[in-house]
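Title: Prediction job returns without error message
Component: structure pipeline
Severity: low
Priority: P3
Assignee: unassigned

Description:
Job completed but the reporter wants confirmation the result is attached to the right record. Sequence as submitted:
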Amino acid sequence: MTALERALGVRFRDRDLLELALRHDSFAHERGHAAEHYERLEFLGDAVLSLVVSDYLFRQYPEYSEGELAKQRARLVNEVALAHLGRHLRLGGYLLLGRGEERGGGRDRPGLLADAVEAVLGAVYVDAGYGVAHALATKWLGDLIDTLPRRAVDYKSQLQERLQERGQFPHYQMVQAEGPDHARSFRVRVEIGGQVIGEGRGHSKKEAEQAAAEEALRWLERAPRRARRA
């Protein structure tokens, strides 16, 4: 497994695809292979990434309109965000560039890095299929997705306010983290006074905490009915 494959968390069956995903057209043109560069894979990766993000937003934000979903997708899939990801993966050091592009600082050019991210995702899709590409894209965008606000639905804040009225405070505890790096799953419990009142799962700790808080709020709603029956 190469260093880049380790960074991606993906082992390619056909490493020529990974090399192609890193080959800029300036490199190909200088060597007389005008058709062999990453633009076709970039086209495919862009479509895969758009589908992954659209599917995630559709399922996670049922209160959003079509326009709001499109706006949030644009916040995630754009040159600035993808270039930041490319730098995090150190893709610039792996790019195959022509001499002119190299001298012009292409290895750190935002547009080029963003294109390379999409091309690499396209290569993963061709080599390993949608499941692996979906997991990789979700891993890449997990931190950004966590920053998207739920409109008027912040279960942790709601739970905090409800418990403060009773002189209590929630305590969150991560009880499990499992799965490979590209598809982690977290399980979190929320307690008051040592009693578990909610548990949730998610692709990130924040997401699992929100799910646990949502369940805890339902527990609080049921508590008066339990007391009356007792």
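Comment from assignee: result matches the submitted record. Residues 12 and 118 are 16 Å apart (CA to CA).
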